[in-house]
Write a structure and sequence with these properties.
About 50% of the residues lie in helices and about 10% in strands. The protein has 16 helices and seven strands. The longest helix has about 45 residues.
Length: about 400
Amino acid sequence: MSEYQYYEFQSIDRPLTKDELERVRTLSSRARISATHFVNEYHYGNFRGDERKLMEQLYDAHLYFANWGSRHLMLRLPTTLLPAGSAEPYCAEGALTCWTRKGHLLLDFAYEAEDGGEWDFETSFTLASFTTLRTELAGGDLRPLYLAWLSALTRWELEEDVDENEYTSAVEPPVPAGLARLTGPQQALADFLRIDPHLLAAAARASGAAPSQAIDKDALASWIRALPQREKDDLLLNAALGAAQQPGPALLARHRAASHGAAEPSTATRRRSAAELLDAAYEVRSEHTRQQEQAHAQTRRAEQRARESHLDRLTENTGQAWQDIAHLIGQKQPGPYDAAVTLLKDLREAHDRSGTPEEFARRLHDLREQHRGKSSLMRRFTDAGLPAR
């Protein structure tokens, strides 16, 4: 089996310096490298760098996946936008790890396929699908963190050698609003982490409606006017100097928190245990299966009614049907030949329904005799189970 690994890094808050670029270029001679981007694919060998150190020192986002099932998404945010204490309740072994370095919080969303799992040669991702998650997290939307915890619960359910009491007694972290209606990047993360959609639906039952993402400019302007003059001067100075940590996201996060507009975790709802969530997911899955079976049964009944109606019309108009078959054959083309064969098979069933199978056999024999020089048509007749007598 051919191995495949994909590495992508992105610097969002600031471009890399010349010295930093030179340092990164020593890690790979084949990567596509710019002041804000690093992309490389490996079909053999491994990346020579340390992803964690690169994220701690240079980059704001990192994506990795391999065709044997390993997946990692790392994001780095200033702790002023997302404190470690806000993320820690959602951390779960093998799904989400967080740590701080030099005023930044680093998040590692991970998925590792079970041993012996099937290799994935089709799936591909790009970092662009996930970078907006940083902005969402900076604005107080903690849904990406809760999704990581759900990913861990999804895998716990599938593992055979895990201590059942170890995870079923675990209690879910605070439930953010809006789980029933994820943003595009959040849905991409749910797919990336292979979250069971039935488990997500069950978890969303305790989640309120997603807050509006629209910014009330008048309310924001009033809030900014109320900030201390010295603080506003410092913010403008940092913006003018092109500081790495631009004030915009932090201001918006503070404004949303002050106006209670962020997707804040629910505190009114009782926290559910992992066992309760898994039981609820089973109920959702069973109901979904029941609805699917019901829909399939309705479809089959509708198809059967349409079939019966079609055969009734053929039974009443067999003469016209035979004329239609003759017209189709007369076109001497593959498509009309196929249509003629389909109509013949239906007409055979119509003659059986009306008690005249001998008439059908006689007319089919005459048809074959009339067109026996058309080898392509004869082959179609034989393949369709319409042989000569």
